[in-house]
């Protein structure tokens, strides 16, 4: 029996968390800003519709914020982490086979749940999470993790899907691949997609039907696995225990300019200690410590960003 994977991905997660505790934000344009209110890290659908791009520096959209009364929030990672935990616990109630993929995404192995109609099961998961946590989540279901990711992306956008798309044994599968830009296929980055498009491979369907030898030569074994996954042959099982981190980074962008050496020292010391705390939680050790400083002078605003890396020895 072929396996069945699902991926649950929360919609506009940070914004949705803020809305749970402030229902007045419903239907309004809302953005969440990164540490020190530097850049946009989450957008409600209404904010997306206003053309606000992910990662844009907040000062660049200050006019838009005023004109459209966009509600802005500083990120509250303690809250998002707590909400994430609740969502993952709820998901784990539907199957013990779960891989927490990021703060707002998890893969589920539903192979043992095939006695249920998987589409109905997906809707049940979705409505339970909404009811228990208040967070809207989209669910994609398919024979492989890569196809489930594609299903999820469509489930998020399609009104008809109502948040759940099941591509297992579906006539819709070819169409779903056809409307998926090759850049949006899991594991295809910008540079691979640019390269593939040069060879006439623009969507996931064209990639699935590409010549194996050509892909193997250009993308190696990862590319071959990707083709298999798109063809419904599962190459990636769930990863239950995350592999230990090879590096820890603490990047920050400042809201205001930092001009004195003492302020700089203090900031670096703070970020190093945050990194060290993460390192201890992982029960790991560092072989290398790197500090990066970058000055930027766009729009006369003086941004300085730091980054701390700790490599495992
Ligand atoms: Mg998400």
Fold and architecture overview:
With 313 residues, the chain is α+β, with helices and mostly antiparallel strands. Helix content is 40%, strand content 20%. It is built from eleven helices and twelve strands. The strands form three sheets. Strands 5-6-1-7-8 form a five-stranded mixed beta sheet. Strands 9, 10, 11 and 12 form a four-stranded antiparallel beta sheet that branches. Strand 7 (137-142), helix 6 (145-157) and strand 8 (164-166) form a beta-alpha-beta unit. The longest helix is centred in the last third of the chain and has 21 residues, at 261-281. The N and C termini lie far apart (43 Å). Residues 298-307 and 309-313 have low confidence and may be disordered.
Could you spell the SSE succession in H and E letters? EHEEHHEHEEHEHEHHHHEEHEE
Average pLDDT confidence is 89
Radius of gyration: 22 Å
Q: What class do helices, strands and sheet pairing give?
A: alpha+beta
Ligands? magnesium ion
Q: In percent terms, what proportion of residues is strand?
A: 15-25%
**Strand segment count:** 12
CATH superfamily of the largest domain: Reverse transcriptase/Diguanylate cyclase domain
């Amino acid at each position: 029996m072929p396996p069945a994977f699902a991926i649950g991905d929360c919609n506009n997660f940070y914004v949705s968390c803020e809305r749970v505790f402030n229902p007045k934000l419903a239907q309004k344009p809302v953005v969440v800003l990164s540490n020190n209110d530097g850049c946009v890290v989450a957008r409600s659908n209404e904010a997306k519709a206003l053309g606000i791009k992910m990662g844009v520096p907040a000062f660049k959209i200050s006019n838009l914020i005023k004109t459209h009364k966009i509600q802005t929030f500083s990120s509250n990672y303690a809250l998002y982490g707590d909400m994430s935990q609740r969502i993952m616990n709820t998901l784990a109630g539907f199957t013990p086979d779960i891989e927490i993929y990021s703060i707002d995404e998890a893969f589920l192995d539903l192979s043992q749940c095939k006695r249920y109609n998987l589409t109905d099961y997906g809707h049940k998961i979705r409505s339970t999470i909404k009811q228990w946590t208040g967070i809207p989540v989209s669910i994609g279901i398919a024979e492989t993790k890569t196809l489930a990711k594609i299903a999820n992306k469509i489930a998020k956008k399609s009104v008809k899907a109502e948040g759940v798309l099941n591509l297992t044994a579906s006539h819709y599968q070819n169409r779903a691949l056809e409307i998926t830009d090759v850049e949006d296929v899991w594991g295809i980055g910008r540079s691979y997609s640019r390269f593939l498009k040069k060879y006439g491979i623009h969507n996931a369907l064209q990639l699935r039907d590409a010549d194996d030898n050509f892909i193997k030569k250009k993308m190696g074994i990862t590319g071959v696995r990707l083709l298999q996954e798109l063809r419904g042959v599962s190459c990636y099982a769930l990863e239950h225990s995350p592999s230990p981190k090879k590096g820890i980074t603490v990047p920050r962008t400042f809201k205001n300019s930092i001009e004195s050496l003492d302020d700089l020292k203090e900031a670096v010391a703070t970020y190093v200690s945050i990194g060290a705390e993460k390192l201890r939680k992982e029960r790991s050790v560092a072989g290398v410590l790197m500090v990066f400083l970058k000055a930027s002078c766009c729009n006369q605003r003086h941004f300085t960003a730091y980054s701390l890396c700790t490599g495992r020895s």
